[in-house]
């Protein structure tokens, strides 16, 4: 009898692969951080696109126009007050006298020193404007003219020019103090508010408040 050979397959060994899961505290912390970052990015994106959607280009345009206009003016002189006075200077010595009578005129300038420091607010519809001014200041106090009415000089008690100038400066300070007591700076700020209100009403704003 002939023998038949049977081809039998050898058993295959299957290797088991172990799945390693990382469930440590660091992994959980990292996952939370990633989730929080995604949430923050989502909120920022939502806020940005919401702002862009609601942004009124007319408000921006009006604000820039007002800001540029105030930049062109910068120092804003609103009041000029002219005054005059007579200064008497007298010096006496041994059997001699020197004196001088000098009439002078001066001018005080008051207003807003820098309009770029104004606070500007435009309403959401771009039709109303509110400007808050800085305080008014004295921008100048200068002598415009001088005239000697009468004078007498003695070589024994000479009258020096710087003594005359000192008396004039003292008189200027007194005149300025009186103007300040009379409310010069308040008047200067009020007048600045009136001028700016009229200008920006003419520029197209329906309501303008300047204070």
Structure description:
- 41% of the residues lie in helices and 30% in strands.
- The chain contains 4 helices and 6 strands, in the order ααβββββααβ.
- The chain is elongated, with a radius of gyration of 42 Å.
- The termini are far apart.
Largest sheet: 3 strands, antiparallel
* Structural class by secondary-structure content: alpha+beta
User: How is the largest sheet built, in terms of strand order?
Assistant: 1-2-5
Radius of gyration (CA) equals 42 Å
Element order, helices and strands? HHEEEEEHHE
What's the total count of β strands?
6
Q: Percentage of helical residues?
A: 40-55%
List the topology elements:
Blueprint: H1 25-54, H2 57-73, E1 76-93, E2 96-112, E3 119-122, E4 128-132, E5 137-152, H3 161-181, H4 184-202, E6 207-210
Parallel strand pairs: 4-6
Antiparallel strand pairs: 1-2, 2-5, 3-4
State the gist of this model:
With 211 residues, this protein is an alpha+beta fold. The chain has helices at 25-54, 57-73, 161-181, 184-202; strands spanning 76-93, 96-112, 119-122, 128-132, 137-152, 207-210.
What would the keywords be for this entry?
single chain; alpha+beta; three-stranded antiparallel beta sheet; three-stranded mixed beta sheet; 6 strands; 30% strand; disordered N terminus
